[in-house]
Structure formats: C-alpha cells, structure tokens
C-alpha cells in the first residue's frame, strides 16, 4: 500500500545521501524511481540531487508554482514508476503537500520526502509543518551537535560569523552558512541563555 513518508532532520545529517541510496536500492531490484528537487537549491547544479560525500543524480525540479499531482500523473503516464523521491521538502507549500498526499491516495504511488524540519529561528517550514500533519510515516534522520548530543536545531551564521536571529526564512547555503546544534547550544549561540546558565 502506497504511503507518504517524511524523512526529516537538521542540516548535514545525510538526508540526500539516504534518498540517493534508497533510490539506488529500488533500481537495483529492477524498479523505477522518479526524483524531484527544489529548483531554488542549485548548489549541486540545476536539476541535481547531490550529497556532501560526492554522490549525485539528475532530477526534475519543482518550485512553489508546480502542480505536483499533475507532474506525477504526467510522469506515470509515460511508464511505470515504483516510488517518487522528493528532496528539499521544506520548500513545499501546504497545497503541494496535499497534492503529494492525493498522488499517494489516488495514483497509488509511494512518495518519500526528505527535508529540514525547522529553520534557523527554530520555526517549522510550511512544507515541513504540512508533512508532519499529513505523512503516513515519519522518520528522523539523526546527526549530532559538537557536544555529542542529538542535533535538532540549526544556526545561520552571518558574514561576521555570528548566529543570526532574524532574516528571510530561506537562504541557500551549506557548511559555510549553517551549523547543526542541540537545543541547548543553539540557545547559547542565539543569546537565549543567561550567562549564569552557560556552563
């Protein structure tokens, strides 16, 4: 039975690596996958899902105007697809998440979404919030803070190297911009812990 999946984490947890590995596993068994990624994030090149460890694959792209149900239906019309893999799911709109849910329910194809849960301010991305509400299954991809605890938050560093507290929710960047931290160290970075607590 087809399901809508949401694999979420912070930056640099290996989400794209897991996506590419899962797609490879399907193909190794003779099945067909269809890959989608956000047009907005072209750090690896336009229409490409890539991992920091050096693997990558071509993908179709979407933006906030893409009707994903229609896109998936059109792809299914061209031939068999056993699973849809969608990277950068935090950039989805709420309506697009509903379109993915309808693709699962009405077209019978599993959809696996991979993305960030929260932004640098500790707030849910709209796409992630909708996936947390609608996904049939959710899986946390774990990574660690520099202290060894599980990282659940991310800071965005400005040009001065200091953690930013304000700004646009979306800013494309990698290790030079974002750092994954546990909640305690995220609070320290943004100045949310009194000096007496910072031990």
The number of helices is 5
Low-confidence stretches: none
Percentage of residues in helical conformation: 25-40%
Q: Sum up the overall morphology in one term.
A: elongated
How many strand elements?
Answer: 10
Which series of helices and strands comes N to C?
EHEEEEHEHEHEEEH
* Category by helix and strand content: alpha/beta
The CATH architecture term of the domain at 4-142 is 3-Layer(aba) Sandwich
Could you describe the largest sheet, including whether it forms a barrel?
A: 6 strands, parallel
Radius of gyration: 18 Å
Looking at this structure, what is the CATH superfamily of the domain at 4-142? P-loop containing nucleotide triphosphate hydrolases
The CATH topology name of the domain at 4-142 reads: Rossmann fold
Task: Report on the architecture of this protein.
With 199 residues, the chain is of the alpha/beta class. The protein has a domain at 4-142: P-loop containing nucleotide triphosphate hydrolases (Rossmann fold, 3-Layer(aba) Sandwich). 28% of the residues lie in helices and 22% in strands. The protein contains five helices and ten strands. The strands form three sheets. Strands 5-2-6-7-1-8 form a six-stranded parallel sheet, sandwiched between helices. It has a two-stranded antiparallel sheet with strand order 3-4. A two-stranded antiparallel sheet has the order 9-10. Helix 3 (94-107) links the parallel strand 6 (83-86) and strand 7. The longest helix is centred in the N-terminal third of the chain and has 14 residues, at 15-28. It is elongated, with a radius of gyration of 18 Å. The termini are far apart. The mean pLDDT is 85.
């Amino acid at each position: 039975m087809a399901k809508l999946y949401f694999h979420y984490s912070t930056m640099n947890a290996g989400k794209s690596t897991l996506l590419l590995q899962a797609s490879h596993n399907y193909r190794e068994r003779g099945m067909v996958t269809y890959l989608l990624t956000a047009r907005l994030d072209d750090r690896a090149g336009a229409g490409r899902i890539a991992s920091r460890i050096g693997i990558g694959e071509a993908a179709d792209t979407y933006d906030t105007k893409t009707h994903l149900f229609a896109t998936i239906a059109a792809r299914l019309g061209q031939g068999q697809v056993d699973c849809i893999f969608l990277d950068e799911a935090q950039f989805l709109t709420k309506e697009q998440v509903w379109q993915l849910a309808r693709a699962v329910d009405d077209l019978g194809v599993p959809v696996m979404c991979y993305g960030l849960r929260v932004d640098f301010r500790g707030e849910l991305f709209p796409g992630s919030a909708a996936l947390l509400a609608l996904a049939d299954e959710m899986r946390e991809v774990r990574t660690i803070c520099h202290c060894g605890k599980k990282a659940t938050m991310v800071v965005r560093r400005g040009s001065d190297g200091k953690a930013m507290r304000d700004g646009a929710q979306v800013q494309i960047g990698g290790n030079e911009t974002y750092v994954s931290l546990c909640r305690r160290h995220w609070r320290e970075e943004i100045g949310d812990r009194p000096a007496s607590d910072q031990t």
